[in-house]
Request: fold
Amino acid sequence: MTLEGGARKSVMVANGSVSGFLARAWRGLQKTGVAGQIVCLVIVMSIFAIGTRGRYLYWDNLQVILSLAGIPAILAIGIHQTIVLGGIDLSVEGVAGMCIVFVGLLLKNKLNTNDIGLWIVPIVMGAGGIAGLLNGLVITRVRIPSFISTLGLSWILAGIAVYINKATTVPLLDTQIQGIVNGSFLGIPLIALIALGLALLMQTVQDKTRFGGYIYAIGGDEQLAQQAGVRVNRIKIMVFVIAGVFYGLTALALCTQLGSAHPRTGSNILFPAITAVAVGGVALTGGIGGAKNAALGALIVTALNEGLVLMSVSPYVQQAVNGIVLIAAVALTIDRRKLGFIK
Amino acid sequence: MNDIGSSTNPEITLAMTGVSKVFPGVVALDKVDFSLRAREIVGLVGENGAGKSTLMKILIGVSQPDEGTISRDGTQISPKDPTDAIRHGIGMVFQEGTLVPNLSIMRNLFLCHEPGFQKMGFLSRREMRKAASRLMEEVKVVADVETPISDVSPAERQMVEIARLLWLSRLYGQKCPVLILDEPTTVLNDGERTILFDILRTIKKEASVILISHRLQEIVENTDRIVVLKDGKNVTELPSSHAHISEIEQLMVGHTFSADRYREDEQTPAGGEEILRVENLGRRGAFEPISFVVRKGEIVSLVGLVGSGKEELCQCINGLENAETGSVFLNGKKMLMGSPNGAVRAGIGHIPIDRRNDGLALGMSVAENVNLLVMNRLTYAGFVSPSRERKNARAWVDECRIKTPSLGTMCANLSGGNQQKTVIAKWLSSRVSLLILDHPTRGVDVGAKEEIFRLIRKLAREGIAMLIMSDTLEEDIGLSNRMLIMKDGRFVKEVSCPPGKKPGPRDIIDAIV
Reply:
């Protein structure tokens, strides 16, 4: 009897400490603000780990996931702020196409003798930034909703890009930037570390600067923010400029990773990026979610797609899965009280 | 020099002199004087439309006076906008609130005035937390300062707004901030109300407060002085210690009360036939279950303050909102709830308070608006017939005496009164059996008001049942056969208003306030 009682007691203690540990861990997770996303990532990875009998969790596969997640993460970090603001930026494919033309012209390649090396980085950032400025000006001065104006700019720039470049594929010979984009540090892909760095940078800006706070104020209620004295238009323009700068970096990383520059290289990157932003928990109604959400969202979406590839699921089914994931993610994050009518 | 120590005559910190404001068709303020002493709580009372809000809007720079001056501590000021007003230490807590819902208490407190917390471009969260916690202690809010405003109770939101205004005034070096509270207690429960007034008494040590409220009891109990406005004019002011609620009520309503203005002699007795029957209609948080009937040709007035639930009740009847309990019968047939389209088909017309946005298609012509609901009757062989359209529109424009250059004139170009008559014409032509009139005479001039009263009498003669919510108590009493009084979501009492034996406003205001 006593033995039994003692055993039960010890089980209870063990139980108590386990649940206590879990509760503490959950509280700790919640403090990060991305608890749901981390749990989601763990679930996705567990399912594929079981589905592939552990192959999914091999280090080389995790490396692949990280290297594939880097570029979507950079892009998602750029886009998400325009969504937090209460708008959206759909111009990335055109802006990226334009930047890729610059890369093909200026970086060491097979078709001309230019070789500006690392200077290409500020150039693509500048080109993207100018495109973002155009977006911002059209939205704030001409007062056209970002949904339409950015889509328009995307088509304008994509058209011009193909026209200038005459739709030729420019093989790149530069090794310096390719070395960075495809390289790794201590086994971790550099592109993933760059994305992590950018996520931390933007998260700090959002948490620790006045500018960052105003983005959320505008996303929460533009009119009230204006009444409080926020210079709404200026903040909006800055957010779109920053988004453009991120698109420039995305474009550079994309074509150097491939080793060739073609203006259509970036023609399928918008949808996964929006999915990533939504999956990361950035509310499409604005005002909620930060850079960490966008980056994690990109990681979740990449982990999901990589798992489907590993299990040899048809790419068409993959596409359908992504569509379902987008709608599900928006359904979970959207604040319907803010929407009078669903258009 | 004034004796600073005496509490009876401290310095005047804010003075508005001879302030006038005219809106098209309405004199909102007529040479109003208003002054505020340092460390004083003043109650500002008056009926809806007496000019309280306009006066306060001028004070915080939302609108500019046509005439008159504002002086603050002896120097003349003219606030351009709320941000400018706060630089002079004048801030207002609005009913609807000005806090951004997704930001934390802390971020809202300092929104747009953060530079003091900045170190090398980065905000010091620790410093902000410290300052925010101190402010929250002052106004007795216990919530963590990083809680988003959307998770905070209405009472605490008000406290946060008050704290923000106090902090901003200090930031701009104002020694005696002026806080304007517009109906602060409507969203509060009794306990919260007590706390609010406790805090106001504490704040009074360093600030002046203007309190706007319909609850005269709390005005008398918690203010030092009461200023009464009526029809945009100063009526009087009196010290709260000597004030009686009944006296203030009388001052608010005034004595002028003309019977013929509302064409009382044309009032028709209610017919026997029931048009509208409401049974146990209720909606949680808005109004408690209520039952009543409106008979053929009867005008029933719904009376109550903002927040009494009468607006929500009407929205449930005309299908804009869905009720939780009960049912509505029109002409004996049970209606589908929550369907505006169903309500129109059943024969319920609705003349909304905001006719420019909800009542009319401003970009369409008078004829198109009048014919809007009866298009299917104006067809010939399946197509809309232009000649029938013209005939129908012409008939109703003449009938309602709409002053318009032509049938094709855009409604946006008509005066407020003629717009309202167009809305009425639209419903008349569609042969409704019940008409809900939501403040039908708001913002229209005296002449048009008379016309609208005439039309209402005519509608009643034709047997249309009406539910009215109007701008003033006098109008309610004058127009209606019967009044249903609501207060805080509850039906309080029914008062009948037969012609010649109408009750006075003072008999009724007790039940309302």
Remarks:
- Chain A has two domains: 1-32, 38-338.
- The first helix of chain A runs from residue 2 to 32.
- The radius of gyration of chain A is 22 Å.
